[in-house]
Structure formats: structure tokens, C-alpha cells
Predict the structure.
Amino acid sequence: MAEFIPTVPARVLPSVTVRDLPDPPTSKWRVIGPGLVGAGVGLASGEFILWPYIASQVGLIFIWGAAIGIITQWFLNMEIERYTLATGETALTGFSRMWRHWGLVFVLMALLSNLWPGWVTSSATLVTYLTGSDASSVRWIAIGMLVIIALGLTMAPVIYTMLERVIFVKIALVATLIVVAILFAINAESWAELGKGLSVGARFPAPPLEFAVLMGAIAYAGAGGGQNLCQSNWIRDKGFGMGVYVPRLVSPVTGQEEAAASTGFQFAPTKENLARWRQWWRFANIEQAWTFGLVSFVTIALMSMLAYSTVFGKEGLANSISFLKVEGDALQSIVGPWFGVLFWLIGALALFASAMGIVDYTSRLASDTIKTVYLRDKPISVNRIYFFTVWAMALVGIGILLLGFDQPLILLVFSASFAAVMMFVYSILLIILNRRALPDAIKVRSYRLGALIWSVAFFGSLTVLTLFQQAQKLFGGS
């Protein structure tokens, strides 16, 4: 065929290099992991608090909402992965090729959403339930956790490998909790209710729950916000597709830094490359479905069933960390003191692992964008920018905890709004990027294009709803 001219835009960033797509690995087990990391980082307050809280209020009639949310995010994740598989660049770099500052916009929203140390304080609060400590010790436990997270993320020779191992342990612990719950705590009635919640006759729950709470639960089932964008970074570090040509993120202290190109690659759509593409694309879809999709849904369903079996109908429950105190106390009464302890212990470890994943993905998005777009020709490496970003997030969190601040209403409002806005905007950008920047043979089309259009409509509606609701909170509307 004639010489291939790259289709990736080169107006803002330099053109990509043409290389052949690598062969898929002969052993697929070796490259399973990014979907599990995505699921494991996403298994946080939504799976442990929000969805169980919904089950405690209205039963399991809304579990279909989790399925819709996870399927929607699966399509989003695959379009994020499509660009990285084809180019070795992250989706944020692709967006920055269309407008220089798109990556920075998403990074700032992710930072503002995650800078407040809410995940570690939730984990620390569960530790106090375990130890019987006073609530005043939460800040000191949380500070210790932030130091451990920063050390772990910046001292591991290959950061993705360390994070993957932490998440694998977390998922194993949650799986253990689920098995024990099935044996000792989840009753027969909850299984029947689960069937109803997934049946054709399932309905949208009536009050007492706000419509916005239910919509948000659908939207963020599994992951949400900036975390989905980091699928690019995780599959690249795992060596998926053209990502095999890009050096992995390593610690500048203990790892072996390599000179990394700031831009990616593209393969000519030859018969051989397209055959390899079909294998990579099929594997990536299956990996994401069986790890991110299945793990997320099973966890939401069974944690909701556990809440339904123990606290359904109980008055005065809050959609906050205190919900886990009530549920743990109920498990101690119903099953035995040991099960309440197990529940809080695994919850504390799970939320700690989520906090580590959140610091990682926020710092990855920031360091990749800063290096690729703004410091491309400077001698500082992406590994060192990541190092500084991780410690900056940890130190800001420690400062907030030492000063004893409660989360300001305006920051809480912004955090709730950013995720919906981000997903609405990058759903649109993914359509443009994966239609215009890729060759005809691998661009998004058909039902996958329809899924992105659905995502735009859904997250656009949620954005309007969330902004309206949060404006009321800020300005005192009724």
C-alpha cells in the first residue's frame, strides 16, 4: 500500500511515529489487570455506602440502575482504551491535540474533586469503629495513611505493579467478605428481591430518596469522573497495544527511568496490523467486561443485599460513613461480634486502597498532561512530576487535617458537580477523537457510537440536574 500518513492531529502537538502494532501476548493471563484496577479503585463509598443505603431505604428494586451505569461506563472505558490501544497516547493527550488546554481542564477538575482527604478519613473512621477509639483520633490515623500512600506510590520501582497488587488484595478481601456474608448474613428474601430488581417489571423507586441521589448512583456505579480517563494510563503501563512502546511510570528514587517520548505512535492499517488489532480489541473488551464490569456489579449487588438483610426499614439511617457503623452493629447482633469486626476491617482496608488509587490516578492524569503538553521539551521527567504531585496531594491533605477544617460547602458542591460535567464533556470529545483521529477501519461506529451518544445525553441531563441542585444548596433555594 502507499505510504501511510498518520491521521492523528498534529496542529497542537508533534505528529506521531508510524510503527507496527505489536503482537498480542500468547498468554492472556499475563496482561489481565487494568479492568480489575479500575474496579478496585472504584469500589469505595458508592459500593460500601451509597448503594447499600439505597437498598436500606427502598429495597433492591433499583439494582437495575447499577447494571445500566456499569454498562454505560464499560462503553466509555472501551472508547478511552481504543485511542490508547491505537496510539500509545492517553485520551487526555488526544483531547489536547484538539485544543491545547483540554487536558489541563480535566486535571484541574480531578484535583479539585480529590484534594480533600475524604477517602482516608472514611477509612480512618472505620478503624475507630474497630478499636473503639475516640473520634478525635481519626485525623491522626488519616495523616498516617496519607504518609503511607505517598511513600507507597513514590517508592515502588514500577508504580502500576505495586498498585495492581494492592488492588488485587483488596478485591480478594471484599470477595472473602461477600462469601462469608452469603453463608451467614444474606437471607433468602434478599435473593428474591434481587431477582425482582433485575426483572422486566423493575421500577424507579418512589420517595424517600431524592431523584438526584438515584441518578448519581447510576452514573457513578463502578467508577466515574476522572477515574475512567485513567484506563488509558493503566493499560499503557500494562503494555496493551501501542502502549508497549511507551516506558512505564516508575519511581525516580528506586526505579530505572527511561527517556520517554512525549507523543505516541500509530500503525498503518495493513492486513497484518488490522488482524493484530482485532485480537487486541477483542481481548481488551473481554478483560474490561469480566473484571471491571462483573466485579463492580457483583459487589454492588451483594453489598446491597447485605444491607437489605440487616438494616432495611431501620429509621434514621444516613447516607454517610455512619451508615457503616449501624450496619456493622446490626451484623454483630444478627451473626456475631466477629462478623461486625470483619465487616469494618475489610471496609477500612478497601477504602484505604481506594484512597491510594485515587491519589494515583489524579497524579497520573496531572503528570502526563503537564509533561506532554506544557513541559515537553524540558529536562524534567514525567516520573518526577508524578512524584511531586503525589506528595503535594498528601501534604495538602495533611495540612487540611491538622488545621481541623471541615469540608467547605462550596468544595463539596464542586466535587459533586465535576464528575457529571467531566463525563458529559469527555463523552462528546471521545466521539470526535475516535471518529476523526483514527483510520476508517478502527474508528468508532455503529452501536458503540450510539452508546456514546446515550452517554452524552445521560451525563448531560445529570449535569443540568446536579448543577441546579447544587446551586440551590449554595444560594439557599428551596
Summary: The longest helix spans residues 271-311. DSSP finds 18 helices and two strands in the chain. The chain has a mean pLDDT of 89.
